[in-house]
Amino acid sequence: MNTAPLQGIKVIDFTEVQSGPSCTQLLAWLGAEVIKIERPGVGDATRNELQFDPDCPSYYFLQLNSNKKSLTLDAKTPDGKEILTKLIQSCDIFIENLHPGAIDKLGFGWDAVHKLNPKCIYGTIKGFPVASQYSSLKAYEPVAQVTAGAASTTGWYEGDYNIPTQSGAALGDSNTGMHLTIGVLAALAQREKTGEGCYVYQSMHNACLNLCRIKTRDQLTLDRIGYLTQFPQYPDGKFGDCVPRSGNTEGSGVLGWTYKCKNWANDPNDYVYVILQRGAKDFELACHALGFDDWLTNPNFNTADARDKHKNEVWARIQEFCITKTKFEVTELLSKAGVPVGPVLSTKEIMTDPHNYDGNTLVKIDQGGKIGEFVTVGVPFTMSNYQPVYGPCPDLGGNTAEVLKSYGYTDQQIAEFAKNGTTSPMPKETSAPDKKA
Ligand SMILES: CC(C)(COP(=O)(O)OP(=O)(O)OC[C@H]1O[C@@H](n2cnc3c(N)ncnc32)[C@H](O)[C@@H]1OP(=O)(O)O)[C@@H](O)C(=O)NCCC(=O)NCCS
After folding, report:
1. Is residue 361 in a domain?
2. Is the pTM of this model over 0.70?
3. Keywords of this protein's UniProt record, alphabetized (predicted)?
4. 407 and 270, same domain (yes or no)
5. Ligand 1 within 6 A of 42 CB?
6. Is residue 411 annotated as part of the catalytic site, yes or no?
7. Are residues 159 and 44 in the same domain?
8. Which has the closest alpha carbon to 422: 413, 435, 430, 432?
9. Would you give the end-to-end CA distance of the chain in angstroms?
């Protein structure tokens, strides 16, 4: 039995860069047939962005387009519009992430597609919600992070580096793709009942804001009492009227920090994150492991509220403990005692850890040719009865003839589409022959 959850589902993927492609790649890995529409001769912008070799698609493209088919199609030509219409009439899901207004201008906005195929679910990604004052803006990752509260609350809270800072995680891009996937899968379940497809609109802003929920919690608290006990600014520093940048404090009420370890001067990632939980029992275990038993009877430290008031002393003493050990030694010592702890891992350490090659966490895909094998991040969850098969990414237009044939186009028509610029770049005009010659 084929347990691929989306087997038999056809997706027309009119997306590029990262946000949309991350969604459609996940749909492909869950078993959907994904046909990626790419501009003839151009393709997804990431194909030629940050390349390691001018003849190969970049790792950026390779990370986001596995298991898809590529159909080159100029949707601005009459033939291109006719082909896209046919594709839409027989698909289950249509996804696009062009700049605001572009897909309507092409004639394939929600209303038009819904008329063509009422069963089709329509997923769209834009920078901002429709009602937003910024809804007409083009958007890339940082635009989402700076407008959704991520950048203003991330980074250092004093000194020269007290500037809004971006997360290395793609909160605006891939995170938006994952949010759209949730919406599209909900729409698929809904269609089982209604028989009709719906419009799923996902803004990068809202996807990013959804991950900043604890910052809205902090704003509400700040508005009420004027301070936030878990922040480095408490109790001695000043709070303004908005949630400040929090450095390396933990997002919840437990007391955490990133500590330097023995090799920090030579290794930029020899750091460890250590958390003191609030409960008395957990604190006791941590004190035994750290050798800080005197804290158990010291009123400055033996309750969570007291530790919040003396967090600078807590941080300084745990720092002394960590500096004589590597991040792995600290992790082993404290984790054995049940203390929440984790080493700061570099991308190199993550990608060379054999434990991560468990079939899903990190996967190796054989792309063939000059590229050979590359590593990517697999489906981030596992299912007890389904294992994705991770395949290569398509060449630009690599499936054009195959897809057009499956829609009944003849070899002759397919050749004509290539000649008239619908599926391939128009051949360059040759100069007129010299009449005298
Ligand atoms: C990412 C973004 C900023 C890029 O903007 P852009 O450089 O204008 O590129 P777009 O792909 O949107 O559109 C470029 C043009 O190509 C056209 N185009 C794209 N694919 C096409 C195709 N297959 N056939 C014909 N035309 C096509 C578009 O219609 C548009 O034409 P227009 O300028 O005449 O309206 C913009 O698409 C955007 O804001 N998207 C929404 C948010 C998003 O997903 N951002 C990316 C995060 S990773």
Report:
1. yes
2. yes
3. Transferase
4. no
5. no
6. no
7. yes
8. 413
9. 70
